[in-house]
Amino acid sequence: MSDHYDVVIIGGGPGGYNCAIRCGQLGLKVLCIEKRATKTLGGTCLNVGCIPSKAMLHASELYEEAGTSFSDMGIDAKVKLNLPKMLESKEKAVAGLTAGIEFLFKKNKVDHVYETGKITGKNTVEAGGKTYAAKNIVIATGSEVATLPGVDIDEKQIVSSTGALELKKVPEHMLVIGAGVIGLELGSVWRRLGAKVTVVEYLDHILPGMDGEVQKQATRIFKKQGMAFELGRKVTGVKKSKSGLAVATEASAGGKAKDIDADVVLVCIGRRPYTDKLGLDAVGVETDKRGFINTDHFKTNVDGIWAVGDCTHGPMLAHKAEDEGTAVAELIAGKAGHVNYDAIPGVVYTKPEIASVGKTEEELKEAGIAYKKGKFPFMANSRARCNHETDGFVKILAHAETDEILGAHMVGVGVGDLIAEVVLAMEFKAASEDIARTCHAHPTISEAVRQAAMDVEGWAMQM
What we know:
Elements: E1 3-10, H1 14-25, E2 30-34, H2 43-48, H3 50-68, H4 83-107, E3 111-114, E4 117-121, E5 124-127, E6 130-139, E7 143-145, E8 158-159, H5 161-164, E9 173-177, H6 181-192, E10 196-201, H7 212-225, E11 228-231, E12 233-241, E13 244-251, E14 258-262, E15 264-267, E16 271-273, H8 280-283, E17 305-307, H9 318-332, E18 346-348, E19 353-358, H10 361-367, E20 371-377, H11 382-386, E21 393-399, E22 405-412, H12 415-427, H13 432-436, H14 447-456
Parallel strand pairs: 1-2, 1-6, 2-3, 6-17, 8-15, 9-10, 9-15, 10-11
Antiparallel strand pairs: 4-5, 5-6, 7-16, 12-13, 13-14, 18-19, 19-22, 20-21, 21-22
Helix pairs in contact: 1-9, 3-4, 3-6
């Protein structure tokens, strides 16, 4: 054995690097192994996911706003797209943040190597020809793009989310397969930059799993913005030709075939856990049929081996992985580690944003839980009116008897930040009245949250 560690973490994404930093803070000797060819930490999220996509979303929002709505506020401007500069700005953001993680590793005495890690025994991990002894092994390998039969991703014409962030020119027509979070975000980027965007979704609605009212409102807004939808359809194949791509589709139930021409196809049908070639079979770590690692309070079935993030069950969210990585570090150090899965927010970073936490109305009805609903439109919010950003609403769901907040669902500019107030309230098991009687600054869009909470008991005063 060349090196001995308290903890060896396989994967340097949000789950892995946060686990490593917390381990270092708690005085544990820790090694983080990351296989990314670019030799950068941060995983999919920082390198080719959350962070670069948000840079492109922000830049494209400013571009569209300057070209369309500035004049409504008395600002006459001529704008011109400089796509290479926009991509360069995105890369600068990524580079700065990846370097920041390396600094935090050094600050907290975390060792790291850029190699492919493989579990070779209950307490051993091999990487780059070296074997590391570990009292604890944490698997934080994340996920990879799910593929579709008959659609071969080349990251040029047929792209995943990774390729969609590297396109060198604006497509004339981008066809997005999948109306989930990633498809809508990246589709909206290229629509704002000038592409015609068509979204093909297998289901009869967008944003699977989200609140029904949110799905309907978001669909109306995106259509008004110019995004086209082919709902209840599936893609059966893509053919390349000199003139572009021919996307074969049919009704989800079969039949009613229709070809759609496009010059770029973006595949966004979800992600799958990255758990192959990790040596799990050698030590008997159990996975389900889809490759997700089975855990019980972050522990696998093998003592001393833990798993966090996208490679385990639950929502594939960077902040969920962060919380799990932190909790595992604390458990290993003998502290109490816990994640409240009922209070994990989800955000779609379109414009307007979409945010949710807790139960949807559909879930509450299915579970037979009596609830009350409060709702407030941004059209009635003074700050939203001043900002010309009135699309959407805030909805709060509370238990009919106890008034405990069970969920919140929002559509509107900035709701990705507003949702944090409700998450905090739910963490402390607050009632809707607690938010309703908490003073909010005026004029702010946060007042919409308070008014929705007031409306749970029917006393919203501004609509």
